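Retry 2 of 3 after timeout on previous attempt. Resubmitting structure tokens to design endpoint.
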């Protein structure tokens, strides 16, 4: 398990200025007691790795003491900007959850003007407090990455009997793998093949939701044939429907191929699980996933109440 060592803890009572090191900090449900960035929002605590600071010092030919870049916690051990949203840092006393990588740096930033180059916008990270407690230099936190759990369900009587080779399910897995790799995510993807059975599909989705699956993608059964049942099962199960993605795909690709508008694909959420009900052809999968994948990170921000608009 990877770990980070706390080199310094730093606070300030005014935003946008250099923070000063202190002997220890107390993490509460709203952030760090006595720090200007504490509050009921997602950027309660800022962290910056010494690895990033050292590179900045080499480029500038200058030294930057802890807190120079307004970070609350100066760490050593891993490159923090290569983590992902919802990853966690924890020990027996405290627990932090990553909520933002980098930030927009304003032209009026006092640190940028003073130093000439602030690295927080690129390599600093922000967290919210999951479990409060005391933190001080010398403490060690375990890095626990969020593992995105994805289940892909292929609905096909023939594929479930081995008569037909499932091509859409493996394609979704490949596309998901490429996407999560590109955004530094840890992930676990599993494929399931089911017959076109309403009860079995409903039971499978309910089981996966109970297992805290992050994403469920079904493929097949979105047409108007007698065995096309996936939207009829899934749509009533959705707590919040996401209509825009499916409308976009049907219009965008339907302009080229009118058959695309016949698809009854749906998307939405069940508890904290994103559910996408897609057609069964590899061509359609490529089209739908092209529009879905760029929305995943923002969708999870909304589900987990990270207001970063």
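Retry 2 succeeded. Sequence:
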């Amino acid at each position: 398990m990877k770990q980070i060592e706390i080199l310094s803890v730093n606070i300030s009572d005014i935003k946008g200025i250099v923070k000063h090191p202190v002997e220890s900090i107390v993490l509460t449900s709203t952030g760090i007691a006595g720090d200007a960035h504490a509050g009921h929002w997602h950027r309660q605590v800022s962290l910056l790795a010494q690895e990033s600071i050292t590179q900045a010092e080499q480029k500038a030919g200058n030294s930057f003491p802890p807190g120079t870049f307004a970070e609350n916690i100066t760490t050593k051990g891993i490159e923090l900007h290569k983590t992902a949203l919802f990853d966690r840092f924890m020990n027996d006393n405290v627990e932090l959850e990553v909520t933002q990588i980098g930030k927009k740096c304003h032209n009026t930033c006092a640190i940028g003007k003073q130093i000439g180059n602030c690295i927080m916008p690129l390599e600093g990270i922000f967290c919210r407090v999951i479990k409060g407690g005391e933190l001080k230099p010398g403490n060690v936190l375990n890095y626990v990455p969020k593992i995105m759990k994805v289940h892909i369900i292929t609905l096909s009587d023939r594929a479930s009997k081995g008569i037909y080779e499932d091509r859409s399910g493996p394609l979704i897995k490949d596309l998901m793998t490429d996407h999560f790799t590109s955004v530094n995510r840890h992930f676990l993807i599993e494929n399931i093949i089911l017959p076109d059975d309403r009860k079995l599909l409903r039971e499978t989705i309910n089981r996966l939701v109970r297992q805290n699956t992050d994403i469920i993608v079904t493929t097949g059964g979105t047409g108007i044939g007698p065995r096309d049942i996936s939207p009829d099962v899934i749509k009533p199960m959705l707590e919040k429907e996401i209509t825009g993605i499916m409308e976009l795909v049907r219009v965008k690709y339907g302009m080229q191929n009118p058959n695309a508008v016949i698809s009854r694909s749906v998307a939405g959420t069940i508890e904290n699980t994103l559910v996408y009900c897609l057609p069964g052809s590899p061509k359609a999968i490529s089209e739908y996933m092209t529009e879905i994948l760029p929305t995943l990170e923002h969708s999870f921000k909304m589900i987990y109440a990270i207001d970063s608009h």
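Attempt log closed. The first helix runs from residue 50 to 60.
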